[in-house]
Amino acid sequence: MAQKQSAPDATRRSERSRRAIYDAALALVVEVGYPKTTIEGIAARAGVGKQTIYRWWASKADVLLEAFLDLGERAARAAGASGRAAYALPDTGDLAADLKLVLRATVDELRDPAFEAPSRALAAEGVVNEEVGRRFVAELLEPSLRLYVDRLRSAQEAGHVRADVDPRIALELFVSPLAQRWLQRTGPLTHEYTDTLVDYALNGLAPR
């Protein structure tokens, strides 16, 4: 008597397709750039029909945004933590050292084409595409900025930062210049540069 074959698992098949689409989108942005990346190209690279992509996403920007979020989550899991918790700022009691450590890691990430290319593409697309810009800020930028806010607040509680300082504004003293230099390519991204940003932000410019 012939054995009854089980029906294919549509959930697993969909997950494989989704993963292939994520990988294809990220690879193409690195290889050919965002302007030349197309839904058709992503579909061909992933080995799926383009209608499969359109069934889940409205545009290549939506594909890339989700792929990049997934890339961050995978990096977090690889670091031994769940979700974005792997990017929590350390709290050793030395605020300057903790900020320098995290900003150095940020520089390393921004110099990695696998992260830099999709980051730059999404930042540029967000300027002209309001919905992508909103999601880029809400899902990528704000979670990271909240970590800086939390670390600065813990420094306030320890008496290392003035009580009247607004952490959300203070973090811009070192995060915003780094973002500007990266976006505009106005200078090299180095560990020395981010160390200097932290020193200037925490110590000010007046003679000591």
UniProtKB/TrEMBL annotation:
Query: According to the UniProt record, which residues make up the DNA-binding region?
Result: 38-57
Key words, A-Z: DNA-binding, Transcription, Transcription regulation
Q: Where are the transmembrane segments?
A: none
Record domain HTH tetR-type: where: 15-75
The record's listing under PROSITE patterns reads: HTH_TETR_2
Checking InterPro entries in the record gives: Homeodomain-like_sf, HTH-type_TetR-like_transc_reg, HTH_TetR, Tet_transcr_reg_TetR-rel_C_sf, TetR_C
User: A Pfam family this protein belongs to?
Assistant: TetR_C_11
Q: Which domain of life is it from?
A: Bacteria
SUPFAM superfamilies named in the record: Homeodomain-like, Tetracyclin repressor-like, C-terminal domain
Designated name of the protein:
TetR/AcrR family transcriptional regulator
Name its species.
Answer: Streptomyces prasinosporus
